[in-house]
Design a protein that fits this description.
heterodimer; B: mainly beta; 4-stranded antiparallel beta sheet
Chain lengths: 109, 124
């Protein structure tokens, strides 16, 4: 059974930089997994931030960026704002199937 | 404006079935694949399956045999039917649109539009 793993929680200071990662139990994550990143705040539906590794939507703040790092997908927040406190989920594509990571709770403190 | 509007909350008994709907507006419904994703209380997101424009489906192994996803292009509505409900199926169920294509010789996939969620409670 394939598992996608994220850090359960991270803490960052306002204005700081933090990187969240997303690993696959099948091996190195590549662009062929079309990594997606979503932000979810309490009581809200998820919102797509990054797709296909590093592409941004028109609504994605410039401080969010996606990449591949050491065999994992990565989401980097630079100049973190208090409103970035949220749960972040990665999604990987496995052919016709998709799999979410367990999520990273990001605390801005 | 692009919207996915889901049906209201449901309360079901164990063993029953539930059918959740998701009505699309603001885009060409027949051109897009659509997903169902669920989230149990206090838990993460769980992908359930996808239905493409031709109504071909792919379901997560966990839900094979219990879930049926259909679409009605005459009403621009997506449906998810989950049978043999148990307490562990208590969750918020979301529909999401998949956009895909070729951008600068690089293919992409994104779940860019989401419904507001439908709470399904399974309790005796």
């Amino acid at each position: 059974q394939t598992v996608v793993t994220q850090e359960p929680s991270l803490t960052v200071s306002p204005g700081g930089t933090v990187t969240l990662t997303c690993a696959s139990s099948t091996g190195a994550v590549t662009s062929a997994y079309y990594p997606n990143w979503f932000q979810q705040k309490p009581g809200q539906a998820p919102r797509s931030l990054i797709y296909s590794t590093n592409k941004k939507h028109s609504w994605t703040p410039a401080r969010f960026s996606g990449s591949l790092l050491g065999g994992k997908a990565a989401l980097t927040l630079s100049g973190v704002q208090p409103e970035d406190e949220a749960e972040y989920y990665c999604l990987l594509y496995y052919g016709s199937a998709r799999l979410f990571g367990g999520g990273t709770k990001l605390t801005v403190l | 404006q692009v919207h996915l509007v889901q049906s209201g909350a449901e309360v079901k008994k164990p063993g029953a079935s539930v059918k959740v709907s998701c009505k699309a507006s603001g885009f060409t419904f027949s051109s897009y694949s659509l997903h169902w994703v669920r989230q149990a209380p206090g838990q993460g997101l769980e992908w359930m399956g996808i239905i493409n424009p031709s109504s071909t489906t792919s379901y997560a192994q966990k839900f094979q045999g219990r879930v049926t996803m259909t679409r009605d292009t005459s009403t621009n509505t997506l449906y998810m039917d989950l049978s043999s409900l148990r307490s562990e199926d208590t969750a918020v169920y979301y529909c999401a649109r998949e956009s895909s294509g070729d951008l600068n010789f690089s293919y992409y996939y994104t779940m860019d539009v989401w419904g507001q969620g439908t709470t399904v409670t399974v309790s005796s």
